[in-house]
Amino acid sequence: MEAKDYLNLPYNISIRRINDGSSSYYLATVQEFDGCQSTGETIESAAESLEEAMEGWVETKLQNGFSIPHPFCAPEYSGKFVLRVPKTLHKQLATEAEREGVSLNQYAVYKLAR
After folding, report:
1. Contact predicate 34/94, CB 8 Å
2. Would the CA dihedral through 21, 27, 29, 31 be positive or negative?
3. What is the pLDDT of residues 91-113, one digit of tens each?
4. How far apart are CA 2 and CA 21, in angstroms?
5. Model pTM score
6. How far is 93 from 100, CA to CA, in rounded Å?
7. How far apart are CA 18 and CA 106, in angstroms?
8. Around Cβ 40, how many Cβ atoms within 10 Å?
9. Three-class SS of residue 111?
10. Domains of the chain
11. d(CA 67, CA 19)
């Protein structure tokens, strides 16, 4: 594969605002490309700058014989998991859920979200 082929793949990009005390800017990174990052005064400028950084990162890796990681696939979540708890905790949660007038499942979701 050539650099342009990799750059068309759906890599995981993160852009977040940074406030370091003296200035504020946006930091853009590629989760799969270790050390590939860029900054900008706006989200758009950080994204544009990251595209250039990605191109340089991929080209440099290819020129030096390194492999390029493929995008991480986000797993699909069912929204369900099994959790074993001590009997005393189960009793406490069930009692609190009953007092609140909700199911134990609803109460557990409420507690986890806090």
Report:
1. no
2. positive
3. 999 999 999 999 999 999 999 99
4. 41
5. 0.63
6. 10
7. 36
8. 17
9. helix
10. 3-63 (3.30.160.250), 76-114 (no CATH)
11. 34
Return the structure tokens found at 67.
């492999």
The tokens for 61 are 């890796």
Whole-number Å distance between alpha carbons of 61 and 33:
10
Contact (Cβ atoms closer than 8 angstroms) between residue 41 and residue 26:
yes
Q: Which two tokens stand for residue 25?
A: 């800017």
Cα(114)–Cα(103) distance, integer angstroms: 17
- Helix H or strand E segment including 41: none
**Contact present, 37 and 54 (Cβ < 8 Å):** no
pLDDT reported for residue 75: 72
- Name the H helices within 8-103: 43-63, 87-100
The answer to whether 3 touches 62, Cβ cutoff 8 Å, is yes
Question: What proportions of the chain, in percent to the nearest 5, are helix, strand and coil?
Answer: 45, 15, 40
C-alpha Rg value of the chain to the nearest Å: 23
